[in-house]
Amino acid sequence: MKILVCITNVPDTTAKITFAESDTKLNKTGIQFIIGPYDDYALARAVELKEQNGGTVTVLNVGEAEGEPQIRKALAIGADDAIRVNAEPTDSYFVASQIAHIAQQNNYDLILMGRESIDFNSGVVHGLVGEMLGIPSFSPVMKLDIEGSTAKFAREIDGGKEYMEAPLPLVFGCQEPIADWKIPNMRGIMTARTKPLQVVEPVAVDDMAINEKYTQPAAKGECKMIPVEDVEKLVTLLRTEAKVL
Amino acid sequence: MSVLVFVEIDNGSIKKSSQEAITYGAEVARMTNATATVLALGAADESALAQAGNFGATKVLHASDSKLTQENNMAYADVLAQAALQEGSSVIVMAKTGLGDAVAARAAAKLKASVISGVTSLPDLNGGFKVTRSIYTGKAFASVDIRSEIKILAIRKNAIEVTESGNTATVEPFYPTLKDASFTAKVTDVEKSNAELSLSEADIIVSGGRGMKGPENWQPLIDLAKALGAATGCSKPVSDLDWRPHHEHIGQTGIKVAPNLYIACGISGAIQHLAGVNGSKCIVVINKDPEAPFFKAADYGIVGDVFEVLPRLTKAIENSK
Ligand SMILES: Cc1cc2nc3c(=O)[nH]c(=O)nc-3n(C[C@H](O)[C@H](O)[C@H](O)COP(=O)(O)OP(=O)(O)OC[C@H]3O[C@@H](n4cnc5c(N)ncnc54)[C@H](O)[C@@H]3O)c2cc1C
Ligand SMILES: Cc1cc2nc3c(=O)[nH]c(=O)nc-3n(C[C@H](O)[C@H](O)[C@H](O)COP(=O)(O)OP(=O)(O)OC[C@H]3O[C@@H](n4cnc5c(N)ncnc54)[C@H](O)[C@@H]3O)c2cc1C
Questions:
Q1: Which domains does chain B have, with CATH numbers?
Q2: What is the ipTM of this complex?
Q3: Which protein residues are within 6 Å of ligand 1, measured from CB?
Q4: Spatial separation of the C-alpha atoms in residues A125 and A137, rounded to whole Å
Q5: Mean pLDDT of the B95-100 span
Q6: What is the pTM of this model?
Q7: Which of the listed CATH numbers 3.30.2420.10, 3.40.50.620, 3.40.50.2300, 3.40.50.150 matches domain A2-219?
Q8: How far is the CA of B294 from the centre of ligand 2 (A)?
Q9: Tens-place pLDDT, residues A11-50
């Protein structure tokens, strides 16, 4: 079985987000970059599925060379090889077009992604790639098993889950508890250094949308403290001042 | 030309988030001298669909084929693309939900359209088509200049206030061509929580953290939620510990919510939790530690023991009804 795992290179969840160059670029100073947490779940499940069913796991990132430490980490966690499409990932359609292009050349049985990137939060790349390849896509998926050429999985729906079955190939957007995050061990880190990481140039895609400027949310006002004895007052404030009741 | 709005139906009526999407679509239609058409799929009453007019749509296309009853992003996107071509729509709008994002994405690939998810503003049409979207899980916004001819927008909850006109829309049947390839997956089982209110649609959420001490202590929180007509949520450790079901987990790695009122009980306010609630209009924090970081993100705070505060709050709500 051939599995492709698509990973993003994103600021750590605790990073303070500020902008540079007249608010047109992320200010990367002091920011620790990580594999997207949802992508990490996808990767962990891919490695488990490989252990159970045999096959290979390839990781793919569309991004610049600065993301290679994250790609190496994915190799250390257990992926066999990696591809980096050498481009600044500027929008979902561009990224999906690159992933679909790589997938068309390689006939993966499974393409695992995160439910969403934690920087642009779109939750659309799996759907775009699925449609570009003409195969179904499901997200968010919290349980995934493979039996022969069938995937058995659970996806979250509003207020519950649906258990489903579908024939491969398929695209999934993953979230917990599909697997536990894996931490690379020493042997993994050593072998990752020599695993193949192929760098390919992007295919041309029309500009669909340009992020022109970034802004930060307005600062929150003071928090109004209410003594425990006066909880009744809180109800009045919520009704007359905040107008949310 | 019409602005096309894809809506979701729940229990026979148009979901709140979809009502917002219709309001948004109708507003874009007004700005561009067009009309707003709604696309509804699966089983729904004509009278419920005609309600789309109340939010500003003039027409509803209803594809009622029983194959479309089951949530299916591949088939839905196919139908949406066919409707967009029939209506000559260059702007397609829907609510940002799990289904909305997936349908938006697949339709975008079909129509070579750009898909912008998490939109928080109406478009600025001065010299193009620009919208604001939420990024970095609510920690920032981006102003996006959309260049493609067809634009698909998934609207973030609470980005626009629903307006009601009292009008009704005309409902027309729509007969799309469905492909077998869209129906290869089958549902073998469904687990629905018995809560009537889903978190993502709720206007009020009462949420509990590790400060609730254990699953056996949830009743006071549930009582408050009942008194408020609210949904219940929780922090990640709470669902990790199986105190509460996973679909209640709110935050960076869980569900993102944007209710009018979020009441956090015994939650410290870690940055990853805040990332899931920063779209809320008003936040109330109840925590016994005055230094809890959540107070910095709150509108109202009570320093106190949840087990004392919650019952009193419930009583105060009930007394004020
Ligand atoms: C320095 C830098 C600058 C960036 N600038 C922009 C920008 O200006 N505008 C912009 O839209 N994006 C930008 N991004 C890219 C962003 O990280 C995403 O890759 C891309 O925008 C898709 O985001 P999304 O929210 O649509 O993904 P989603 O649809 O939320 O992602 C779903 C899943 O798709 C996969 N995926 C998404 N992106 C990639 C990728 N690049 N490589 C491999 N798999 C991926 C992951 O598995 C992810 O979990 C930038 C990234 C970096 C590192
Ligand atoms: C990559 C990553 C992703 C994450 N994603 C998420 C996420 O999506 N959502 C999420 O929630 N977390 C997430 N976390 C975890 C997050 O960092 C925090 O650990 C978590 O939010 C803490 O949960 P808590 O507030 O319930 O518990 P604690 O931090 O233990 O806080 C409990 C609070 O309860 C208060 N308390 C105790 N007893 C009482 C009482 N009797 N009355 C009133 N108050 C009381 C305490 O003062 C304390 O403030 C993530 C972490 C990582 C690393």
A1: 2-183 (3.40.50.620), 204-320 (3.40.50.1220)
A2: 0.93
A3: A 6-10, 36, 38-39, 60-63, 88-92, 95, 113-114, 116-117, 119-126, 173, 211
A4: 10
A5: 94
A6: 0.92
A7: 3.40.50.620
A8: 10
A9: 998 888 999 999 999 999 999 999 999 999 999 999 999 9
